[in-house]
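User: I'm putting together a teaching handout on how sequence relates to shape, and I'd like one worked example. Could you take Riboflavin synthase from uncultured Mycobacteriales bacterium, show the sequence you're using, and then write out its predicted structure as tokens right after it?

Assistant: Happy to. First the sequence, then the structure tokens directly below it.
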Amino acid sequence: MFTGIVEELGEIVAAEPGESGTRLTVRGPLVVSDAAEGDSIAVNGVCLTVTGTAGDTFTVDVVPETLSRTSLRDATVVNLERAATPHTRLGGHLVQGHVDGVGTLLERTPEAVLRIGLPAELSRYLVDKGSVTVDGISLTVVAAGPDSFTVALIPTTLARTTLGSTPIGGPVNLEVDVIAKYVERLLRQGR
């Protein structure tokens, strides 16, 4: 479980394809400082398991399913967050690190409002002033539409996360609020 509060920008320094997926080596001095094999680290919002550490880098194995359903395949600079602990402040919202789909950055206004396109099947989980995770960043939805939504970013978020440099047309990992998904399922079963 994560909070969606990015701790640092990291860099994917190596990607080694293998039989059962790809091994990524990620540079992230802060998140690796207390990381151990088996720990979870969110990389652009994708919960990955640490398989080793060396200096200021850690390695993770990414299965083909994850590569096909996220934007990790083409990522170089990534948002990093260590898993929450019982003593972590929950400054964002409950984030699982399970990407629901890949969206597209459609527009960035001078006021730092971003419009992000999303797969139609995810739009029902977004509401104005609700929570959404974009590349691992906990954000508040300004306006939710049928095929896109907007978020407003503060200068700190622009400076300390990948969203400050994501190009128009660039992919972003999306995770909708898990509570909305559970409510929908419970309501469907109650029919």
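A couple of points you could highlight for students: Residues 178-189 form the longest helix (12 residues). The mean pLDDT is 95.
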